[in-house]
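As a next step, the fold was encoded as tokens, giving this record:
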Amino acid sequence: MAIADNLTYLNPVIDDLQKQFPDNLTVNIACHGHSVPAGYFATPFVDPFHSYPHLLHREIKERFPFSVVNVIVTAVGGESSMLGSERFASDVLCMRPRVVTLDYGLNDRMNALSTTESYWKRMIEESLANDVKIILMTPSWDQSYFRTDRSWTSLVDQAIQIRRLAEEYSVGLADSFLEFQKHIDTGGSLADLLSHVNHPNQRAHERIAAELSRWFLAR
């Protein structure tokens, strides 16, 4: 199996985003996860209008000006995939999304890989059973990078597992972790992308939104 093709995976959704009145439909996209998609910057400050769900919404509307599209944030600060999976049907699928983004890696590194894998699989399988497209997201970085301790290696392990799950289920992948790596590899500092110990700043959210938006290409 392989990660879905970003040029074709969302074809049915793109078709609907391109329809014009009176044939256009409301398209809901749900951003599920923890504090990062919820819009936390320097805790307890929440700035949703500079976080990647809002930036993605703006980008989609620019590309599909005739669409009626909602980007709905179902994220909860401090949450892991365990609780996120428990409320997935009641808080996410009830919104009748066409696409769900899943972002729990940053908090999931506190738990065993086998445990978090089961929760991710539950949400992936519930999405697919309901004909909902899903885009898995690798974690953004935090200051554990400077220490290269167990917290950091666990974050790396989560990123690897999330990529593997995207391949296993042939679903979408937005590799936020790789976006941070690219910044470091080209001479940037991690401090350029952080607003807090473990939260990205606007510059980083823009990179994450750009990585997500490559799945929403107008034809």
Residues 11-212 form a domain with the Rossmann fold fold (CATH 3.40.50.1110). The longest strand covers residues 26-33. The chain is about 45% helix and 10% strand. The CA atoms of residues 109 and 154 lie 5 Å apart.
